[in-house]
Amino acid sequence: MKDICIAFGGVHAVDHVSVDLHPGEVVGLLGHNGAGKSTLIKVLSGAYKADSGDILIDGKKVTITSPRDARAQNIETIYQTLALADNLDAASNLFLGRELTNAFGFVDDDAMEAETRKIMGRLNPNFKKFNAPVKALSGGQRQSVAIARAVYFNARILIMDEPTAALGPHETQMVSELIQELKAQGLGIFLISHDIHDVFKLCDRVAVMKNGQLVGTAKTTDVTDDDVLGMIILGKCPAGAIPGPGALNDDTFSG
């Protein structure tokens, strides 16, 4: 995403922000509420249209003005709410709106369940509740259904919004393992999170936003928790990070 700008009623929600993502990499997007990270990612997912700036995939400029455009570019989004139909089982959720049909044009439940078992066997072999409505599943199991849906439809870029929010330690570990599996398969993942421990555990790089601008980016191996907190709270870019337009320099803190 290159030089992305979007304003609402004169307020610059995203102000000349550039971030990149590589295959098999997880980039954590951090910042306070209102920092602009969700707005930036909604431009990539097609929920918002940028006022200016470019999105390039494999070096080629693409146009994304709707979620359909994003899916056509193999970009899938897993929102915090997961957008699952509580009364339907895993297979019905996996194929919701994209149901498999037989030769007579009827929904093929057996084929959908077989495909669901196949993808879940790859992502989460412990998943067994194929016939239960998803409202009966645990948070981690629900998350794995949402992830399986994205992966089944050939996502190359996955946007995950607070994937471990409200999950217990065991469930969080399950989601962590899913993310590691997706990385191994070559997916690029943007992960929006407020949990710094999560970010250091799951992400290869962090990108921090403040007041609609990019403070900076850094490899998680090159910075500490305190460094990242300083980026989020103060907008100060540490030595191990690449500063963005929103970074304050050391002169700001002298005297």
In short:
This protein is of the alpha/beta class and 255 residues long. The protein has eight helices and eleven strands.
SSE order and pairing:
Layout: E1 2-8, E2 11-17, E3 26-30, H1 37-45, E4 52-57, E5 60-62, H2 67-72, E6 75-78, H3 90-94, H4 109-123, H5 139-152, E7 157-161, H6 169-184, E8 188-192, H7 196-202, E9 205-210, E10 213-219, H8 225-234, E11 242-243
Parallel strand pairs: 3-8, 3-9, 6-7, 7-8
Antiparallel strand pairs: 1-2, 1-4, 4-5, 9-10, 10-11
Fraction of residues in helix: 25-40%
**Helix count, DSSP H or I runs of 4 or more residues:** 8
One letter per element, helices H and strands E, the order comes to EEEHEEHEHHHEHEHEEHE
Average pLDDT, to the nearest integer?
89
The rounded Rg comes to 19 Å
- Which structural class do the helices and strands define? alpha/beta
In the CATH classification, which architecture applies? 3-Layer(aba) Sandwich
Q: Beta-sheet strand percentage?
A: 15-25%
Strand order of the largest sheet: 6-7-8-3-9-10-11
Q: How many domains make up the coordinates? A: 1
So what's the CATH class? Answer: Alpha Beta
- Which blocks of ≥5 consecutive residues have pLDDT under 50? 251-255
In total, the number of strands is 11
Q: How does this structure look, described?
A:
There is one protein chain. With 255 residues, this protein is α/β, with parallel strands linked by helices. The chain has one domain: P-loop containing nucleotide triphosphate hydrolases (Rossmann fold). The protein has 8 helices and 11 strands. The strands form 2 sheets. The chain has a 7-stranded mixed β-sheet, sandwiched between helices. A 4-stranded antiparallel β-sheet has the order 2-1-4-5, covered by helices on one side. Strand 7 (157-161), helix 6 (169-184) and strand 8 (188-192) form a beta-alpha-beta unit. Helix 4 crosses helix 5 and helix 5 runs parallel beside helix 6. It is globular, with a radius of gyration of 19 Å.
